[in-house]
Structures are given as C-alpha cells and as structure tokens.
Specification:
Jelly Rolls
Length: 359
C-alpha cells in the first residue's frame, strides 16, 4: 500500500497532452455510455465501462447532453464543467454510506512494471462536508457486493488531505507511482477505511474525471533525480544529521519533464527532511536546483529555481518557517557528470540541500 500525505500538485482548467503511453483505463473520462443519465437513473452503470460495486448506493454519472439534474455542467450537486470531454463521474460520501466506482483494465498489469496513477477531483458546490481520504484499489477481478456503509480495508494507493479534499472551484490532480505485482485486472475508486470517522466531516459529493493508469518509461518521461556523489543520503528514518555545510541529495525528488511540480513519490523522503528540521530549530537549509544541459540556459535557470521553490513550498506547508529556507537555481552550470550521456543527464537533474546553523 502506498500512502501519500498530499500537497495540492496541480490546479487546472484545461487538458494537458499526456506524456505517457497507453492508459490502462478504457474510458478515463466517462465519455462512452449505454444510455444518458436521467433523474431516475444516473448510476455510473449508464456508462459502457464503469459499474458500481456496492449493494446500496451507486456512483453517479453526469453528461453534457443530460437534463439539469444529471448534467455536466449543471446537476443536482453543482455546476462544475468536465475537465475534458462532456462527462464525469461522482461519488456521495458520508458516515455509514460510501459510493464507489470500478472498471476493468484494458489488460492485466505487468509484474514489476511501474505505473503512473492519477485522477482529477473536485468537491461539488453543494457539499456541506468533506473527507480526508480518497483511494484507488487494484484487484484481480472486479469486487462486487460491497456494503453500502463502505469498506474498511487499506487500498493499494491512499491519498490523504489533512484538511480534507475541499476545492469546489477547480479540478485538482492527485498522482502516485505504483509497482504492479502482475495480478491486477481492475481498479476501484472511493473512500476506504470508513471506520475512521475522523476522516469524515458531514456529507459530501465529489466529481472525478480523467482517471489514468499508464506504464512509465522512467528514462525519458520522468526526471528522476538519482543520488549523486554527495556524501550523505537521507533514507527511511534519519538517525544522524547530514554533515553541516556539505551538499546532499535525496534519492527520490521527482518532477515531470520540464515542469516544477513535485510528484507525490517525492513526499515521503521530504517528510524525513521535515522531521529533521523540526528536531533542531536552529538548522537552516539552502535548497539548490540543477538541470542538465538540454535546452536554452535561460529556461534551465528558471526551471531549476522553480523546482527549488517547489521543495521550499512543501517544507513551508509542513510548518517550517520560511525564514530558515533559501533557494537558488543554477541551471546547468554545475553538472556532476558529462551531459553527453543519458545517465549523466539524469544525474545532473537534481535538487541539493545544504544544512547550516544560524550565525
């Protein structure tokens, strides 16, 4: 199980071209339907590919060609426009009542293959509450006959928002990396571990769109910063402090190509850095961004600075005083290795940290 304590990573209005290969979700934006949703039946089962696994409440379906009750935009819960296409799905969530939606993959996931998993979510305008957990569960075959009160098992991927999933104005992307075991043929989306009542606050309804599970080509599609020749690496738990005034990097500080948003796979290691800074309030930290030599240097400097700022923003979000942080973008000026090879370029794309005590 992958648990991710989430930072908002993307607020978007318009679709962005996918960088990844085939989406294993056959209808990621709910465009294909057997029949249009209507007031008496707007179950997610109106689509050709998605169904509800619960015995009680069913996930909901909204389409631009439907009436105001089940339209997109314009339905009983709000007026959100689809992120892409003409439709989206929806789930009602409250204590002792949780809706889910599920579909089969176009093919069984491959053992050992890493997949980029993501969806976009928006809380409906008429929601009076919110939840703090949403998840995606992969299984061999579709799970059916689930209780309307919700399920209490730990999902394959779990997204946590300590303040709740609360944005009512914009679609928000949540993303993770998942390594398949080779038996997964379907995915279910919803709220899990429903017995944890602290994760509920009132009644809420959430819209979902653009759900994807895509195999990752790590060499070309994701900037995966590898551990450099620096002396210190942060691992699962920090038992000793890194050497003061010496640069170190983390194994997993990940960004999409040519973008500055942190991928959620980066969060666990940065959380360890948060713990270290909390343990010694006298520590200050310099965050330096670096790129490879590809592209224009002016862009590289801006990108490296933006990536350093993204890491700093995460630390501030976790309660680290901004006065303890400094950032700088060096572009490609300080390579670790030659940019003539792909391996060298990957190592040169990095974020480094330097700890020091206040003067």
């Amino acid at each position: 199980m992958i648990r991710i304590f989430m930072l908002l990573i993307s607020l978007v209005f318009a679709p962005v071209a996918s960088l990844f290969s085939q989406n294993m979700i056959p209808d990621s934006s709910f465009e294909e339907y057997r029949k249009l949703p209507v007031k008496k039946n707007n179950s997610i089962s109106c689509t050709k590919n998605w169904v509800s696994p619960s015995e009680g409440g069913a996930g909901d379906y909204y389409h631009d060609l439907s009436t105001w009750w089940t339209g997109a935009p314009g339905n009983i819960f709000g007026r959100q426009k689809p992120r892409t296409g003409d439709a989206y799905g929806g789930l009602c969530l409250r204590r002792n009542f949780c809706e889910y939606m599920t579909t089969k993959f176009s093919d069984t996931l491959k053992a050992g293959q890493e997949y980029r998993v993501e969806f976009y979510v928006c809380r409906a305008e008429r929601s009076i509450g919110k939840v703090k957990e949403l998840g995606m569960h992969f299984s061999r075959g579709i799970l059916l006959g689930l209780p309307a009160s919700g399920v209490d098992f730990v999902p394959s991927i779990e997204f946590i928002e300590n303040k709740g999933f609360r944005n009512k104005r914009k679609w928000v992307k949540y993303s993770a990396i998942y390594k398949a075991n080779g038996s997964e043929t379907s995915v279910m989306i919803g709220h899990f571990r429903n017995k944890n009542t602290k994760r509920f606050k009132g009644w809420s309804h959430y819209y979902f769109d653009d759900i994807s599970v895509t195999p990752i080509d790590q060499d070309t599609l994701i900037d995966k910063v590898l551990n450099s020749n620096s002396e210190v690496t942060l691992e699962n738990k920090i038992n000793t402090k890194p050497t003061l005034n010496k640069a170190f990097s983390l194994n997993q500080i990940n960004f999409e190509v040519n973008k500055s948003e942190l991928l959620p796979s980066s969060f666990p290691e940065i959380e360890e850095l948060v713990d270290l800074l909390r343990s010694d309030p006298s520590l200050q930290i310099q965050i330096n961004g670096h790129t490879d030599g590809s592209g224009e240097e002016e862009f590289n400097v801006e990108l490296s600075e933006a990536r350093a700022l993204s890491v700093a923003s995460f630390l501030i979000e976790k309660g680290i005083d901004s006065g303890r942080l400094q950032t700088k973008g060096y572009g490609s000026a300080l390579p670790l290795e030659s940019n003539s090879s792909q391996e060298g370029r990957i190592k040169n794309r990095r974020v480094e940290f330097i700890l020091s005590h206040a003067n």
